[in-house]
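wait is this the right file?? whatever heres the structure
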């Protein structure tokens, strides 16, 4: 934000004596500069004020306080998730696929919260573990689910890159029902 400071200074009249700061006329027959008024300086002050207001209004972007700022989608590569799983790290896989798909096969220790039920059941996701969301849905839907979970306070959430199919493609283990 730019700040415009306007200083008005009226030069002392020739032959007049002024105090050191220029506030008082020692000749008492004339008013001090800050009390002098004339049409020219008032008009210019109004123009300067209008220009300063226009400059500030056009120079500053509206403050959004991070409301509406896009949240980047954090992804976890399947290889990294597999290494964490093998090392015994606390992971929470959240399967956003329909319950029928979850019943057929799922990632190890995954929880089923179908995408349409996420807003109602998000509290079932543990907060202490690394949360990895996955599904076979379009990327936009998965990104929306991630943003919702982050907006609800889960700072440890990410999305499994390539989803469930990427896990299967690498030959990693799944749990059948």
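ok assuming it is, sequence goes like this
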């Amino acid at each position: 934000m730019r700040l415009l400071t306007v200083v008005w200074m009226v030069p002392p009249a020739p032959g007049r004596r002024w105090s050191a700061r220029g506030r008082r006329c020692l000749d008492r027959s004339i008013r001090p500069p800050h009390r002098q008024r004339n049409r020219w300086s008032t008009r210019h002050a109004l123009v300067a004020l209008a220009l300063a207001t226009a400059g500030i209004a056009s120079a500053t972007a509206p403050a959004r306080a991070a409301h509406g700022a896009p949240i980047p989608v954090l992804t976890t590569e399947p290889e990294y998730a597999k290494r964490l799983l093998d090392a015994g790290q606390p992971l929470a896989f959240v399967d956003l696929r329909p319950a029928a798909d979850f019943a057929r096969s799922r990632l190890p220790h995954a929880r089923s919260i179908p995408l349409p039920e996420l807003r109602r059941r998000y509290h079932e996701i543990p907060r202490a573990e690394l949360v990895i969301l996955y599904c076979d849905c379009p990327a936009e839907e998965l990104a929306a689910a991630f943003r919702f979970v982050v907006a609800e306070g889960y700072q440890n959430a990410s999305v499994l890159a390539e989803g469930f199919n990427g896990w299967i493609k690498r030959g990693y283990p799944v749990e059948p029902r």
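The domain at 75-176 is CATH 3.40.250.10 (Oxidized Rhodanese; domain 1). so i think its the right one actually
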